[in-house]
């Protein structure tokens, strides 16, 4: 190859197939790719650290897990014709892997098409399938397609005490489900799904409505890193507290009481319904510092082993050897569920 390509032989680097992408750094290191790059670019090598040893130890956890943990992701972007997109929600999938490997667990992840839950002929069969999983995630999404299936998934997880983690849209679905079945608001919904719902428990705020009317859609989306004030004693608080070794420069956190998490959404929990939801038992464990935006919710640990949902995206801030605290706590709860 060197002769035909006209480049030095030491610059020929093999990239063989690997069982996991986390094996690739070791493959390249063995071929001294890192030293060749430093030399070629004229860079001064940094003092040696223990990075290679820690990465090798991490790969042992990745490749030699002790036991499985079975996680269902119920979404609507997996199915394309007869194909299944295994990299849909890739950030969520990797976040699950990072948290499972940290606990020497092998994540067995199964994708479920949420629209199956809306088919009367399949609803009970998919419910029975989901009961066999140790944890359920309803991830992000947009639009009205599959919403009733997501709400049914939340109800199943809540009533049968299956560990549940809702992400962004998954939190909004949890609010709707709780409003319908625990607060008696039978037609509760999000304005995104049904603009004419009599109980818009998830809605556009007034300043957003103005932009939407002017078709300035970009100005209606909450993007980037926002502060979240966490209620002491909650599962959310305990998760951050237990895993505060997570780099503070990522979460922007110096204590579990205030963290900074990333967002990408438009609709918000309607504050007009918060008191009613709280009275029925829903805990708003994370709020914006001014108390106006719901960032996270949960159920009391005495009522449910793990029912947590966030408006933000913790999967955006996970790292291979440093899993996000909330994914760690979710995987712990799922692993503890005996089927």
From TrEMBL:
GO MF annotation, one: identical protein binding
Coiled coil: none
Matches recorded under InterPro entries: Class_I_gatase-like, CTP_synthase, GATASE, GATase1_CTP_Synthase, P-loop_NTPase
CDD domains named in the record: GATase1_CTP_Synthase (cd01746)
UniProt keyword list: ATP-binding, Glutamine amidotransferase, Ligase, Nucleotide-binding, Pyrimidine biosynthesis
UniProt pathway annotation: Pyrimidine metabolism; CTP biosynthesis via de novo pathway; CTP from UDP: step 2/2
Top enzyme category: ligase
Keyword Repeat found: no
Domain Glutamine amidotransferase: 85-332
This enzyme's EC code(s): 6.3.4.2
BP GO terms, sorted: CTP biosynthetic process; pyrimidine nucleobase biosynthetic process
Catalytic activity from the UniProt record: UTP + L-glutamine + ATP + H2O = CTP + L-glutamate + ADP + phosphate + 2 H(+)
Domain of life according to the entry: Bacteria
A GO CC annotation given for this chain: cytosol
Family: Belongs to the CTP synthase family.
Name the UniProt record assigns to this protein: CTP synthase (glutamine hydrolyzing)
Organism, scientific name: candidate division WWE3 bacterium
């Amino acid at each position: 190859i060197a002769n035909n390509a006209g480049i030095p032989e030491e610059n020929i680097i093999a990239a063989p197939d690997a069982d996991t992408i986390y094996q690739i750094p070791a493959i390249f290191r063995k071929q001294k790719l890192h030293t060749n790059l430093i030399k070629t670019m004229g860079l001064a090598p940094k003092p040696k650290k223990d990075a290679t040893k820690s990465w090798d130890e991490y790969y042992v956890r990745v490749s030699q897990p002790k036991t499985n943990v079975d996680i269902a992701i119920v979404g609507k972007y997996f199915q394309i014709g007869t194909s299944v997109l295994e990299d849909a929600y890739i950030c969520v999938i990797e976040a699950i892997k990072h948290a499972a490997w940290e606990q020497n667990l092998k994540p067995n992840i199964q994708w479920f098409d949420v629209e199956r839950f809306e088919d009367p002929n399949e609803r009970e069969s998919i419910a029975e399938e989901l009961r066999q999983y140790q944890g359920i995630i309803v991830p992000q999404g947009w639009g009205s397609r599959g919403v009733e299936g997501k709400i049914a998934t939340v109800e199943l997880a809540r009533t049968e005490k299956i560990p549940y983690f809702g992400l962004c849209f998954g939190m909004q679905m949890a609010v709707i489900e709780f409003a319908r079945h625990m607060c008696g608001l039978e037609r509760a919904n999000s304005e995104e799904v049904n603009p004419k719902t009599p109980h818009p428990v998830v809605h556009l705020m007034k300043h957003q409505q103005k932009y939407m009317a002017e078709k300035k859609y970009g100005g209606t989306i909450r993007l980037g890193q926002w502060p979240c004030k966490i209620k002491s004693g909650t599962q959310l608080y305990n998760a951050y507290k237990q895993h505060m070794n997570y780099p503070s420069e990522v979460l922007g956190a110096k204590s579990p009481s205030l963290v900074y998490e990333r967002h990408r959404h438009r609709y918000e929990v309607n504050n007009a319904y918060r008191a009613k939801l709280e009275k029925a038992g829903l805990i708003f464990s994370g709020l914006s510092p001014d108390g106006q935006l719901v960032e996270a919710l949960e159920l009391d640990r005495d009522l449910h082993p793990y029912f947590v949902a966030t408006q933000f995206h913790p999967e955006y801030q996970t790292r291979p050897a440093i899993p996000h605290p909330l994914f760690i706590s979710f995987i712990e709860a799922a692993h503890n569920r005996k089927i």
